[in-house]
Each structure stands twice: as structure tokens, then as C-alpha cells.
Design brief:
There is one protein chain. Helices cover about 40% and strands about 20% of the residues. It has a 5-stranded antiparallel beta sheet with strand order 1-8-3-6-9. Strands 14-13-12-15-16 form a 5-stranded parallel beta sheet. Strands 19-18-17-20-21 form a 5-stranded mixed beta sheet. A hairpin with a 2-residue loop joins strand 4 and strand 5 (about 45-50). Helix 2 (about 105-115) packs antiparallel against helix 3 (about 125-150) and helix 15 runs antiparallel to helix 16 (about 385-410). The longest helix has 27 residues, at about 125-150. It starts with a strand and ends with a helix. It is found in: Cell envelope.
Length: about 550
């Protein structure tokens, strides 16, 4: 006998594009999509989710979510409590709903809304009712999956994809091709053909690959003995495991373990664990906008995208630093990367789709270039083994920010406000509202304040800017000071002339005060090197 006990209820709401990392947990978690659309990666397996999709995350499984549009999700956490002597009693039920299930939204809402209502309610009757509704939801999932298994699947590709998810969760089990074909409701010959079209190999090779990847992870990150690793990944015979491992990896499990002493594990932005050199020397990085993060730490890559390094004030300051760095293009040219013989490749989210090809050249890690600058630097410190340098840089940057504003207190009033607008071409204006680049300095706790109106309209998620109707400029440019950013390629006198012709320009508070500052958008770059350079020159930027 066993019991399923709901332990936590979480409602997740997103206003637009966003991402979320669900780390590993000792409990089961049920992720339910009520509104919106998102992409998921569970244990390196990709899928999508629409309203009505219910996904069971098994213990110790990680999940990366990318939200595409306005969305509402529920995350229900629960335990399977088994009576003494009945270990594994809950396994059949859990297996029956593992992976992804789709329920009619009307049926789903009936139970999820009642479960998620008043999550902190302590009344015992209310809690019992919530538990009862949760079990009703689990019953619905079991019934739906049973119904699906009784139907003949008309989409071979989808049915094979579902068996791939099963294999990722059950690779340590002995599963025959016929069992997989039966699970997909396909003839054996059709299943094998569809499987190879999707994966490029047969089921046996695919299972072996999954087992060996997990074996490498265990050998490099735990102290378990080789026979224990073999058993965990599905091999009862240690000698057979040793032969298969050496056949596929070129070295024995013991040799592999010794080599790993010179490597370490990191987790990339999608939650995937990667094995990389402990002291990489020849680094390639594909994101031009955050290349300065590496440079701030004193690390010059052998290859990088240099498309932003021709602008002032960057070029003259970095010519010597980057003189040996080769341009790898944008998007990244993998043939150029191969020629540089790197020992580590760092890919941005934009370039992450090339991770499999880049990994064939050198160990590859994906970074989130949209994360805040301190988070990005700490991640680089973890990957490159320069934690102390990263920590010192951030502490010094914060101290410098505070000193700059302490010295500037006499040049502004205590509650003085500032607004930052970005001018594109043809009178396109955008309100910058995220604390990044120049704004991180401007809105320092000792610096300028945001006007209450701007505080009210700025979203919590989504883009870094808000489009401004030029005819409604007075509703946005409400600060005591106004900072106008324009592309380096724009002619600044022409920008000034264009803005001065806008309705209401002359009545703006900052214009009346003579407190309008026109700057190149380069000063707003969010990388660590430019942020430091901007701080050095900050005083004169608005003098």
C-alpha cells in the first residue's frame, strides 16, 4: 500500500517571454500549463507544452522552461509514502503517468483551481479537501493515459518521441525493441524506421549512449566504485560494462576516472551538466555584447565575435588586449572555431542550437547572456575556476559606484529623478527601464530616483524597453534629468534637431532645466568591461 501526499502548491504567472530553471528535487513534481505556450527540456529531452499539458517530473530530474507568451502554470509537489515492506508499491502508478499527458482544459481547471486556491490555508478540513482534489486529478491523469494506450497512435513520429522520453527515464531497464514498438502502437518495422529517422541510430545504440553518458557523469562526480556505476546504468556484469565502455570511449572506466581529476562539472543555462577542463587556456566565446565580461576578468579568448569592437570608446582601449583574438563571425562559423583548436567553447543562448556541433570540437557550455552582469560574472568564475577574481572585481565595482555617488551628492538633490530614452532612427523612441549598463549606475541607491509614473508603468518581465509615442513624449520624459542614447552611427546634432521638433519637447522639465544629456548608446553596454569604463567616465557624462 502507498499514499500520495501533496506537500506544496505554486502558481507561476508570466507576462511574456521568460525562462525558469527547476533544479533537482527529492520529491515528485507535477507541472501543469493552464495558459500560454512554452518549451521544456527535461534531462536533455526537449518538448513543448500547451494549455492542458501535465508533465510529471521524477525525483532528481531537472527541468528548463522557456515561456514564449503570457502564461499561467501550476507546480504541485508531492510524495509517495509507502508502507514498510511495500517498497516500490507506488512505482506502477508513477510510471503510468510519467512524462507528458494532455487533459481537456475544462476538466483540468475544475481541480487545479480548487487545489491552488488559498495555498497557505491552515484549516484542516480545507487541507483534506485539497488532498482529495489532488487525488482526483491524479486519477484523471491515470485514466487519460490508460485511454491513450488503448488507442492506435496515428502519428508515428509523435509516438516514437514519447518512447524516447520513456527511455530517458528508464534506460537502466532491459527493454526490447518489441516492447518499445508496442508502447508506440506501431509495427516493429515501422517503429525501427521512424526511430532511426529521429535519432540517426537504432534503439540499442541509443540506450547504450544514454547509459554511457550517465556512467561518465557518475564516474566523474561521485566516489562510487565501477561495479556500482555499472549496476546503476543497467549492467549486471562489470566486465561486460568495462568492455563496452572502452569500446565506445577508447579508454577503460578506471582510466576515465583518473582523467577527470583534471576536469570539473558545471551546469549550463539550461540546467544541463557539462564536463570541462579545470584550467581552460584557449577559449572561444560567440556573444559580442558580453565579450567584455571575459576581458574584465583578464581573459582574452582566442576566438570571439568582434562585431561590436569597432565602436568608440571600445576600439582604442582594447586593440592590444584583442590583438591575438580571431573573429569567428556572427552567427559563429564553426570551421573557424575548429581551426583555433580551442579547449573550451562558450556559447550564448542565441548560438546554443549549435552546441552538438561545437561539442564535437571541444567541451562546450551554454551561457545566458541575458542574465544580469553580476550573475554572468559569477558563472564565468565557476566555469573558468576564477571565483576569487570574480568576487574581488564585483566588490571593487560596487565600492567604486558608491564612492562616485558619494562624491556627486552635492551636484543633485536628494529626490532628483532621471529618465533614459533610446533614440533610433525616424523618431523612434524607447524608454529604457531595466537596471543594466548605464542605468545600473544612474539608479544606484545613492543616485537618481525613478519618477513614480515610470515606476508604475514599467513591467516586471519582458523587453528592456517600452516604445514611446513621440506625440506623447511628455508622459514618459518626466524626469528632472533626461538622458538620450543614440547609436554611434547616428549624427548627434541631427538627433538633437529631430527631438527639438517633437510636440511638447520645450515644455519637458529636463529641457527647461538645461538637464538633457545626449550620449552614445555604447555607454549603455551591459558587459563588465564597458560597465567599468563607463563608471570611470560617469562624472563627465552628465557634467
Amino acid at each position: 500500500m502507498f499514499s500520495l501526499v501533496l506537500t506544496d502548491v505554486l502558481t507561476l504567472t508570466y507576462g511574456g517571454e521568460d525562462s525558469l530553471e527547476l533544479g533537482s528535487s527529492d520529491d515528485y513534481r507535477l507541472l501543469i500549463v493552464i495558459q500560454g505556450r512554452l518549451s521544456m527540456q527535461i534531462q536533455q529531452f526537449n518538448s513543448t507544452a500547451e494549455p492542458g499539458t501535465c508533465t510529471l517530473l521524477l525525483p532528481n530530474h531537472q527541468c528548463s522552461l522557456k515561456v514564449h507568451i503570457s502564461s499561467r502554470l501550476y507546480l504541485f509537489t508531492f510524495n509517495a509514502i509507502e508502507q514498510k515492506g511495500n517498497r516500490g508499491a507506488s512505482d506502477p502508478l508513477v510510471r503510468s503517468i510519467a512524462g507528458k499527458t494532455h487533459l481537456p482544459l475544462s476538466n483540468l481547471l475544475k481541480w487545479t483551481e480548487s487545489i491552488a486556491d488559498k495555498p497557505n490555508e491552515q484549516d484542516i478540513v480545507f487541507q483534506l479537501q485539497r488532498q482529495q482534489h489532488f487525488l482526483c486529478l491524479i486519477t484523471l491523469l491515470v485514466e487519460q493515459r490508460t485511454h491513450e494506450e488503448q488507442q492506435v497512435c496515428l502519428d508515428p513520429k509523435q509516438s516514437v518521441e514519447e518512447t524516447l522520453q520513456f527511455l530517458h527515464n528508464s534506460y537502466s531497464m532491459n527493454v526490447s525493441v518489441q516492447q518499445l514498438a508496442d508502447r508506440a502502437h506501431l509495427p516493429r518495422w515501422q517503429y525501427l524506421r521512424s526511430f532511426k529517422q529521429l535519432t540517426g541510430c537504432n534503439p540499442s545504440s541509443y540506450i547504450t549512449h544514454l547509459r554511457m553518458e550517465e556512467a561518465k557523469r557518475l564516474l566523474s562526480s561521485t566516489n562510487e566504485r565501477i561495479w556500482e556505476v555499472a549496476n546503476k546504468v543497467g549492467y549486471d556484469d562489470e566486465q561486460y560494462f568495462n568492455r563496452r565502455f572502452k569500446q565506445l570511449m577508447g579508454i577503460s572506466p578506471g582510466q576515465f576516472t583518473r582523467i577527470q581529476n583534471h576536469q570539473h562539472q558545471v551546469t549550463d543555462w539550461r540546467g544541463i551538466t557539462r564536463l570541462i577542463p579545470s584550467s581552460a587556456k584557449r577559449i572561444v566565446y560567440d556573444d559580442a555584447s558580453t565579450l567584455g565580461d571575459l576581458l574584465a576578468l583578464g581573459i582574452a579568448p582566442v576566438g570571439a565575435s568582434l562585431r561590436f569592437c569597432s565602436s568608440e570608446p571600445v576600439i582604442h582601449q582594447l586593440e592590444r588586449t584583442l590583438e591575438r583574438t580571431q573573429d569567428i563571425g556572427f552567427p559563429v562559423n564553426l570551421e573557424k572555431v575548429r581551426e583555433l583548436n580551442p579547449d573550451l567553447v562558450l556559447l550564448s543562448r542565441y548560438g546554443y542550437e549549435q552546441c552538438p556541433q561545437a561539442s564535437a570540437i571541444a567541451p562546450t557550455v551554454g551561457l545566458n547572456e541575458y542574465a544580469e552582469m553580476p550573475s554572468r560574472l559569477r558563472k564565468l568564475g565557476e566555469i573558468l575556476g576564477v571565483h576569487d577574481i570574480t568576487k574581488k572585481w564585483l566588490e571593487e565595482y560596487d565600492s567604486r559606484c558608491e564612492k562616485v555617488w558619494r562624491d556627486l551628492q552635492t551636484r543633485k538633490s536628494a529626490q532628483e529623478t532621471a529618465v533614459v530614452l533610446f533614440y533610433d532612427s525616424n523618431r523612434k523612441l524607447y524608454l529604457m527601464h531595466r537596471n543594466r549598463g548605464l542605468l545600473r549606475i544612474l539608479y544606484h541607491p545613492m543616485g537618481f530616483k525613478r519618477d513614480k509614473h515610470i515606476q508604475h508603468i514599467r513591467p516586471n518581465h519582458g523587453n528592456y524597453y517600452i516604445h514611446v509615442d513621440p506625440n506623447l513624449l511628455e508622459q514618459y520624459a518626466v524626469g528632472d534629468r533626461l538622458f538620450i542614447l543614440a547609436r554611434p552611427s547616428n549624427n548627434m546634432p541631427a538627433v538633437k534637431k529631430d527631438l527639438q521638433s517633437l510636440p511638447g519637447w520645450s515644455t519637458l522639465p529636463a529641457v527647461k532645466n538645461g538637464s538633457v544629456h545626449f550620449l552614445s548608446s555604447i555607454w549603455n553596454s551591459d558587459d563588465a568591461w564597458t560597465s567599468s569604463y563607463t563608471l570611470n567616465h560617469f562624472t563627465r557624462l552628465w557634467s
